[in-house]
Amino acid sequence: MTDGNLNRGPGVRLKDVSRIYAGRAAVDAITLDIAAGSFVALVGSSGSGKSTLLKTINRLVKPNTGTIEIDGVNPTDAAYSVRRKIGYVIQGTGLFPHLDVAANIAMGLRIARVRDPQRRVNDMLKLVDLPLDYASRMPDTLSGGQRQRVGFARALATGPGLMLMDEPFGALDPVTRDNLSTAYRALHDRLGLTSIMVTHDMAEALLIADRIVVLDTGKIVADAAPVDLLNNGGGPIVNALIAVPRGQAERIAKMLT
Ligand SMILES: Nc1ncnc2c1ncn2[C@@H]1O[C@H](COP(=O)(O)OP(=O)(O)OP(=O)(O)O)[C@@H](O)[C@H]1O
Fold first, then answer.
1. From the CB of 52, is ligand 1 less than 6 Å away?
2. Where is the ABC transporter domain (predicted)?
3. Ligand 1 contact, 26 CB (< 6 A)
4. Is the confidence metric ipTM above 0.90 for this complex?
5. Between 3.40.630.30, 3.30.70.270, 3.40.50.300, 3.30.420.10, what CATH number should domain 12-256 receive?
């Protein structure tokens, strides 16, 4: 992925954020301070509240209690443009199948009233390393990895500083997954984005995030840099999550000696 003119990432502060469904807390009084420019992975078992927590930040889910600030601003403020300032990437991209690549990427540009959307579409294709003539291709003519690149291009088109990603590499084969996640990490660094990524995959989180937040039943059970999580472990939930990539790495290392 190559360079583009995008915003620097904001800091994100959640205080006592809860979301209750049918009397049960999917997100349970979470307080989290995310530094501008950092890359945070939200990890945890299925149903632990990762997606719900992520969606409280871009208001797809309204918290029952608590406050959220993005660079000190409450994203519910009328002046705050969530669509423009926050990019959102989901597993399988959510591209519109009846629209070509250019129209998919330009989707948010019209809403954000960006001038010269055609030029911006080309900039975004370059940013995610796709040939410019892919602009007229339909999503079903692309590989999964190419579609996911278009999903990133669409999310980045309005120049957001904050990227929220829900299993962004989850639908990809391991090689494409590794290539694209490494390319995204490089883009994150180059553009100074703030990235928050939900993943089931502890190995992926350890390899690309600066900080890993582990959730269980809506609560934070660990919050540490990858190296600290590996060296110091945590409670049984954290240790079980780390045991998988650690065991695989050890078994592969043994095969090499
Ligand atoms: N719209 C909803 N209505 C009712 N319950 C919900 C809703 N969204 C989420 N939940 C519940 O909240 C809890 C947390 O769900 P969430 O999707 O945040 O978990 P997750 O960690 O992202 O899971 P997964 O890894 O499987 O996607 C689950 O028990 C889920 O059933």
1. yes
2. 12-242
3. yes
4. yes
5. 3.40.50.300
